[in-house]
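Regression test attached.
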Amino acid sequence: MKQTGKKQVNHLKRLRVLLAILLFVPVLLYFVDFTGALPQGVHALLHFQIVPAVLSGAAGIIVLQFIFAFVFGRIYCSVICPAGIFQDIINRLFCIRKKKSRGVRRFSYHKPQNILRYVLLGLTVASLISGFTSLIVWLDPYSNFGRIATNLFRPVVMWGNNIFADLLMRIENYALYHVTIHTVTWAGLIAGIIILLVFIVLTIFRGRLFCNTLCPVGALLSLVSRYSFFRMTFNTETCNHCGNCERSCKAEAIDSKSMKVDTSRCVDCFNCTSSCTRNSIRYRWAPFFVKERVAKEEVAASAPAPGIAKPSSGSRRSFFATSAAIAASLPVVSAIAPSDDVPEGENTAADDQPAPVTPPGSVNLERFKDKCTACHLCVVRCPTQVLRPAGFQFGFDYLLRPYCAFKSSYCNYECTVCGEVCPVHAIQGLTKEEKRTTQVGIATFHIHRCIVYTEGTDCGACSEHCPTQAVHMIPYEGTLTIPQVEPELCIGCGGCESICPVNPHRAIIVVANKEHQQVSPPEEEEVKEIEIDSFGF
Amino acid sequence: MKRRDFLKTSVVAGAALSLNFDGLQAALTSDTTAVEAVPDLVAVMGGEPEAMLDKALEALGGIEKYIKKGQKVVIKPNIGWDRTPELAGNTNPLLVKALVKRCLSAGASKVTVFDHTCDDWQKCYKSSGIEAAVKEAGGIVLPGNDEKYYKTITVPGGLKIKEARIHEALLDADAWINVPILKNHGGAKLSCAMKNLMGIVWDRRVFHSNDLQQCIADLCTWQKKPVLNIVDAYRMMHQNGPQGRSAADVATIKSLLASSDIVAIDTAALGLFNQVKKLDMAAVGHIGKGESLKIGSTDLSKLNIKRIKI
């Protein structure tokens, strides 16, 4: 009775949940919305994600996130990171109809896996600096969430839609319509399933273990959050070591015996506050220098100035060094991408491997590989579903990156969506005019496979679908006409390849430009006034 | 005359009317003695789409002759491309709108409009102005973007194709009207009424790989023929078809054709096309092949054609 009487409303937790929902719901809907009903601008929410911000060189956002973490701790992991929120949802679902001891209070304190998480962080940063994104592709929480949403949630939503659309159609309602799912590839599906299972298993057995071991963003923020001004603190007077807080801590960061909270792992979920009947663990202003009497200068140590800090332990020193190195390297990372606009086309010996057609705005293959984290946002937003996650067909280092699958779809002439939404700017935003003149590849015609040549009958499907008439029909035998390609007009949109009726190999195939080119727009023809006054029959 | 005989005669006359003795009906309804035969084909020039449609329908004896009360009607325009009406890639939305209205006022229980588009269907429906036009007129716009909507039917009369998968809206319909736009076409050379039927089937690759011209003609032998073909030639794309690149590809010739004979109307449309660009009948193979399959006639001299200038 006294316990329930004492229990206070946990406003902070409520606020945390509310903010998480406010961010998560639009992001999730944005990924699964196949109708284009949501405003395009929702992608702005994703620019706050740390990995995209780092890769796109959005220094302002990074600084903001660091300051935020320095003041409030790793709130980012609970209200901004969709993968973090998603794990909280898994946790919540797991706890349904379970006793507290098996549900919300199933955790226990574990020591931090510092070596693992900081080695991974270091490797990630090092690989980014050397322009190699394969590691971040697998570790970035946002991109992992994106892959789950794209390859698992979205198809389910589309199937659901199709079932409803069919039902509605029976009663002559056409508000919904049937959709075909083209974007799911084996690679995407497997990647989505793997990370979903990792999230589920880790969440169930060890709470936020992913965030505190594998996640480079978690590791990065932990460097700052361990010194955060606001933090969870024990009231050593009133605490009776009941252990409720420890058992409710998803981050496994509370040691109730020694009454210590590892702020480097705390994600500010405030569940511990709710669990405490004595109000003994609270989120309060407790800067490290107040308690630990560390020299004031150390506050400045969060800025990239190595050597100023006078840490009390060896490990702390290494953290400062790491954080300083990372902070110093951020501009380097973001500067890398634009600087490498000269692709090493010659010494990429794997010329037998076909090059993927990368989305318009990706500038060149090498740059795209260095920047794209395979979050698949472009895949879900592409209206023609031409962008699909790659498997191994373009080599290991292109795995899961989106490529233009022209065999069954094409890139809409006027469309610039992928560049608009890409949160890492791996695909740069193009204006419609730029898009219409950006050549991502060139259609090559194989006459020996062409219907007109093999069957001696009319076809012309390729030319029909060519928006620039780079593929046009020229006289052939008799009244027949046969396609011809003007490479300097072709933008590689794949209209021709997608519609060519020849199987299994199309008679017209877009060969990728590893370096995208500019073509001149189709010549503006003069509009002539044509008047007729007789029917002609 | 005995009363019984009189009744018999009236019954026969009634039956004759329902058998489309158009001239007689026209004469009876207009209450004139001079019986003018209802034309096989009407060509109108010089008006706005709606006005030209009304002239043509009037000459043909009214929409009621084709659309009966309570019927489920499908109108099949060309909405193949993500293009605005000015670029003439799709049927004129004003024409479609007027036609939906006429069908509804003739008592159609519902009027649906669809096309199996080439570009993204939502973009096509929107840019063409047809979605908005149909909705304003009280019709229903149906998607044609998914294989799911298409059911297999047989085309026994076809030479190259014996079956096709056709949009279920058409299979359910009591009557349908084919409303193509006349334009140049890279593959088929001319896109008009017969070619417009490619938008009712799912797998067009089969057509392209099995003698396109013959397949177009084959499909037109499908027993459920449009009750009427209305060709929109208000704006005509005379080059770079069927998609077109710019306004330079378009001639505004303000014309409209209407006929139940799909071969005749395409023959006439070719004549109209030739007023702007030279195109040989032999090149547009599907028209001649259509005649060989006895779908209609290319011999316009034997047809009763009414030409109206506004």
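Expected vs. actual: identical. The first helix of chain B runs from residue 3 to 18.
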